[in-house]
Amino acid sequence: MSSGGPKIPSEKPNANRGVDSIEDAATWLAERRIEDIECITPDIAGVARGKMMPSAKFLNDSTLALPSSVFMQTISGDYPEESDMFSYPPNDGDLRLIPDLSTLSAVPWESDPTAQVICDMYDHTGAPTAYTPRNVLRKVVDIYSAKGWKPVVAPEIEFYLVKTNSNPDFPLEPPIGRSGRPISGGNGYSIAGVNEFDELIDDVYDFSEAQGLEIETLIHEEGAAQLEINLNHGDPIELADQVFMFKRTIREAAIKHGMYATFMAKPIQGQPGSAMHIHQSVVDMETGENIFSGAEGEETALFRGFIGGMQHYVPKSLVMMAPYVNSYRRLTTHTSAPVNVRWGYDNRTTGLRVPTSSHVARRVENRIPSSDANPYLAIAASLACGYLGMIGNLVPASATDQTANEGDNDLPRGLLDGLAAFEADDNLIEVLGESFVGLYSAIKREEFETFMKVISPWEREHLLLNV
The dihedral of CA 14, 20, 23, 25: what is its sign? Predict the structure, then answer.
C-alpha cells in the first residue's frame, strides 16, 4: 500500500480508461478507430465472460444478455447438484449486461483496434443479480456506506511464469530467462531476477498503461520465476476490476513471449505458493479520516473490532479466499504461507499483519487469500469479516511478535471443511446474500467431486504395488 495513507481516493481523469456517458464513449472509440468492443464480466471463478460486438452496435444501445447458467458452472464447465440452498431457475433466463463506462479501455494485445468494458449483471426486472461477483462486492461496500464508512484496499498479486505445458500430466517447470539458463528459486527482491524477463515486463507495463491500469511496484518473489505486482490503494470495486484486468494482461504478455503466467495457489511442488494479499483500511465518508486511528493517532475500538472480526470470520469464509483444492496445498505449515489468523505488528508470519505506518495509513493486511481467488469475492469476504467485527465489537486476541506459521494449522484444511463452516454462519450469509452462498457452495462441492475422480501420481507411486 502506498505511503500516502488511506484517504478517500480522488477521481482523477485517465485518458486511457473510462468515460462518463455514451456520447463520450462514441468520441473515445472514434478517436482510437475502435472497430470491436468486448463486453465482459467476471464469472464465479473470475474468468471473463461476455460478448464481442461492433462498436456501432454497442453505441446504438443494443440489448446485451447472457444466460444465467453461465454463473452456475464449475471451473471445468460442469453444473452442480441442487441443494437446500441452491436450485436452478426453471427457464435459464437471460441476465442483462449493463456496461460500466468508467471501465472502458483498449485491448492492447489485439491486432485490430479493440476495446473492452466491464459490465454489471441485472435480471429481467432491472434488479442487480445478487449472486454475480461484482454485485456481491458492491453489496458489501454498500453496507459500509450505510454506516458512513468507505473501505479502501490495495491488493498484491503473486504469480509464476512457467514453460508452456500442453500436457496436464507433466509437472510445470520454470521458463528460460534472457540469460539462457533455467530460472531458480530464492531470488526474493532480486533485480537480476526481474531483469531475466525484461521484455515481457516491458509489455506488461505498456499493456497496463494502454488500459489505464496503475502498477505501484513489481518485484521478484522467492519462487522460481515468481513475480508480484502491487497496486495503488483505492475503491474496492475499482481495485477488483484492476486485478481482473491485470490477470488477463499478464497472461497475454506471457503468451506473447512463449510462456504461461499462472495464478494457481501452488503450481510447482517444492516452491512457495502464490498469494493475493489485501491491505485494508476504512475512512469516514464525511471527514475523510481513517477510522482506525483516533484524534491523537491511537488505535481505535473500530480498528480492534476489525481485527477481531477477521480472526473470527476469516476461517468461516476461507472458501472465498482459497477456492480450490489446490489452494490448500499453499496453506501448510513451515512455508511462507500463513496457517492461522493470529495478528502482529509488521509480522509477516501471521495471517493478519499490521504494517509499520503513520497513523493516517494504519491498515490491516490479510495475507491469507491465494492468487487463484476471484478478486471480487476475496475482497468482499475480507471486508465482510472486518465489518462484522466492527459492528459486533469483537475483541481480538493479543498481537504476537513470534513466528506464527510453524505451529498448528488453525484454518480449515480442505475445501469441504471450509464449506461446512461457510454455510453454517448466519452473519456471513446475511452480509453476502443467501442466493450467493447457496450457489457458491454448490459449485465448490461439485468441483471437489470432480477432483476426486482424478487419480494422482502420488497414488500410483505409493499405492500401486504396496497395498
Answer: positive
How far apart are the C-alpha atoms of 236 and 246, rounded to whole Å? Answer: 15
SS3 assignment, position 15: coil
- The predicted model gives 324-335 an average pLDDT of 93
Other CB atoms within a 10 A radius of the CB of residue 242 amount to 26
- The grid coordinates listed for 65 are 444478455
Residues 6+ apart with CB under 8 A from 384: 140, 313, 317, 428, 431, 432
Sign of the alpha-carbon torsion through 456, 457, 463, 464 = positive
Any alpha helices (H) in 86-172, and if so which ranges?
A: 133-146
Amino acid at site 55: S
pLDDT at residue 1 is higher than 50: no
pLDDT at 284 > cutoff 70: yes
Per-residue pLDDT tens for 403-437? 998 878 889 999 999 999 999 999 999 999 999 99
Written as nine digits, the cell of 243 is 486485478
- Give the residue among 374, 365, 395, 378 at the shortest CA–CA distance from 432: 378
> Cα angle at 313 between 307 and 317, to 5 degrees?
130
Report d(CA 359, CA 15) in Å as an integer: 33
The amino acid at residue 49 is R
Main-chain phi, psi angles of 54, to 5 degrees: -65, 145
Q: b/e per residue, 306-332, with b = 16+ CB within 10 A?
A: bbbbbbbbbbbbbbbbbbbbbbbbbbe
For 160-191, give the DSSP string.
EEEE--S-TTSPP---B-TTSSB--S--TT-H
Distance, CA of 207 to CA of 256 (rounded, Å): 12
User: What sections of 373-456 are H helices per DSSP?
Assistant: 375-391, 415-423, 426-432, 434-451
- What is the residue-wise DSSP string for 197-259? THHHHHHHHHHHHHHT--EEEEEE-SSTTEEEEEE--B-HHHHHHHHHHHHHHHHHHHHHTTE
Task: Indicate if the pLDDT at residue 140 is higher than 60.
Answer: yes
Residue 379 clears pLDDT 50, i.e. is over it? yes
CA–CA separation, 409 and 417 (whole Å)? 13
Contact 387, 431 (CB under 8 A): yes
